[in-house]
Predict the 3D structure of the following.
Amino acid sequence: MARKRGSKRRRMSQDERKEEEEEEQTIGGGVDEGNEKSVEKSDKCPVVVFAHGAGAPSSSDWMVRWKGMLAEALNAVEVVTFDYPYIAGGKRRAPPKAEKLVDFHRDIVGKTLAKYPGHPLILAGKSMGSRVSCMVAGEKDISVSAVVCLGYPLKGMNGALRDEILLQLKVPVMFVIIAFYVVHLIVVPTYISYSNSKYQELITKGLTG
């Protein structure tokens, strides 16, 4: 008799998958992938580590498109993408909790910094990858210049807020948020420490313009 999978194993909810699909359709649509510019790189150019979301690997069309956009917009010496172990090699497994991905992510960042010593480091992510990027940026032994969040899972499946790490970060963070099918950008400066009410005020202003 076939054994049923353990009930404790975490699976993506339909809402999580739908959220990622909507982000892929909305953020970055209509981009000309062939319009790439040749620019001179220097030691001042940042290196970007770009993490994928929960449901698709770094080879997805959405990730490839945004990798090129980030490289051009930031004049990056390289945009490094990777696959978390649970989805590497074409695997289709449910993602673990974000906290369990931090060590692997840190290892990728460490290898990237070793390859590009002296270059500013920018962490970027899509949805779940944004959350893990923020966790890594909060580590004391990693010097991060900024974080770019292309979508952020601010609420968990049970409705609980996941804003603790955001309130603790001391680096600039840009949120790309979808509201009424319009992309809004919010930049949180590094020199300001926000309370919960102030953070929510920033989000509201970003959505309403």
